[in-house]
Specification:
Strand order of the largest sheet: 2-1-3
Domain GIY-YIG: 1-76
Pfam family, one: GIY-YIG
Order of helices and strands: EEHEHH
CATH class: Alpha Beta
Number of strands: 3
InterPro entries: GIY-YIG_endonuc, GIY-YIG_endonuc_sf
Organism: Rhodohalobacter mucosus
CATH architecture: 3-Layer(aba) Sandwich
Number of helices: 3
Protein name: Excinuclease ABC subunit C
Shape: globular
Radius of gyration: 12 Å
Largest sheet: 3 strands, antiparallel
Length: 88
């Protein structure tokens, strides 16, 4: 299973989009443990969205779709939509 995900940094007030073959919770832990240079300045991150895919290609395509969305309102509406598989 592969995932596309969105995490949120309250300290930077920004969203980060990515994909992973780990569970979204495991990937979040790596972001918060400073494994990723590009997200170190935003620690702590909160998981806000994920969607699962059968193939890595599908997850990467969805991640690229998310990254092309420059409208914050779109991202926030996606987070509150039924498409979001993350439940708090």
């Amino acid at each position: 299973m592969y995932y596309a995900y969105i995490i949120y940094s309250p300290s930077r007030d920004t969203y980060y989009k990515g994909h992973t073959s780990l569970t979204p919770q495991q990937r979040l832990e790596r972001h918060n443990d400073q494994w990723t240079v590009s997200t170190r300045s935003g620690i702590p991150w909160d998981l806000t969205f994920y969607k699962s895919f059968e193939t890595k290609t599908e997850a990467i395509r969805y991640e690229l779709f998310l990254k092309k969305q420059k409208n914050r309102a779109f991202i926030e509406s996606l987070i509150s939509s039924r498409e979001n598989e993350f439940t708090q």
